From TrEMBL:
GO terms for cellular component: eukaryotic translation initiation factor 4F complex. Gene3D superfamilies: RNA Cap, Translation Initiation Factor Eif4e. It comes from Adineta steineri. The keyword RNA-binding applies. Keywords: Initiation factor, Protein biosynthesis, RNA-binding, Translation regulation. Residues 1-25 are annotated as: Disordered. The keyword RNA-binding applies. This is Eukaryotic translation initiation factor 4E. Residues 1-14 have a biased composition (Polar residues). PROSITE patterns: IF4E.
Length: 215
């Protein structure tokens, strides 16, 4: 028997992965996501500017990597116990989670204000994430997949009321914006008494009071 034949299978697989520089194990292939996503975190630190406090955590391209990361991160409700003012951002790879990025510059956000109760927050956040990685915003009957207009989502932990937002690259096409809002509501199974509001980024950043749309 040669040296190679004596090696355990896993070791051989690892070696093959190394030699081909591949990330997919041919025996247990991982399930690729439609898009690669990046998890970001805002560390609450008054000494830092907003941009300095933005931390790029990790990219996820596979279902398994998504769950490994999700399970490793503190849940939003856990953060709310001792890390108020922190945020998670989950954006398509290559899009910086800020208004200034060219993918967001002409866009806006659907905003769900969740209040201070933590019990539903984790569930709404997870439903939003799964809707995004599972491409649930696109339907087979769509002329074009609506997921192309979604750049990312945010959960913001605030003592005055937690928020979840869905960021879109497009704010001017009302039909698309409203349809995405309706689908988001349905993905989260939002009760009818909870409303979501849409604002363009340049208006939400300038503190305008009136939402552009409401669903
Ligand atoms: P926020 O985290 O979106 O809302 O923005 P928050 O904390 O609920 O407060 P609100 O009352 O302003 O809604 C908080 C602050 O972070 C903003 O006023 C900006 O100073 C900064 N900030 C947030 N975002 C998303 C951006 C961004 O995209 N670009 C820049 N330059 N600053 C941002």
């Amino acid at each position: 028997m040669t040296d190679t034949q004596q090696q355990p299978l896993a070791q051989i697989t690892n070696q093959r992965d190394k030699t081909t520089n591949g990330t997919v194990d041919a025996i247990n292939p991982k399930s690729p996501l439609e898009f690669t996503w990046t998890f970001w975190y805002i560390k609450p630190d008054k000494r830092l500017s907003w941009e300095q406090s933005l931390i790029n955590l990790i990219d996820v391209s596979f279902v398994e990597d998504f769950w490994a990361t999700y399970n490793h991160l503190a849940s939003p409700s856990r953060l709310s116990q001792n890390k108020s003012n922190s945020d998670y951002y989950f954006f398509k790879k290559g899009v910086r989670p800020m208004w200034e990025d060219k993918a967001n510059a002409n866009g806006g956000r659907w905003l769900l204000t969740c209040g201070n109760q933590d019990n539903k927050l984790d569930e709404l956040w997870l439903e939003t994430l799964l809707g995004m990685i599972g491409d649930c915003f696109s339907h087979d009957t769509d002329a074009e997949p609506l997921s192309r207009y979604i750049t990312g989502c945010v959960v913001a932990i605030r003592t005055r009321g937690h928020k979840i937002a869905l960021w879109l690259s497009e704010a001017h096409n009302g039909t698309i914006v409203r349809e995405i809002g309706r689908r988001w509501r349905s993905i989260m199974n939002l009760p009818s008494n909870l409303r979501i509001q849409f604002d363009m980024h340049n208006e939400s950043s300038s503190g305008s009071q009136r939402p552009m749309y409401e669903e």
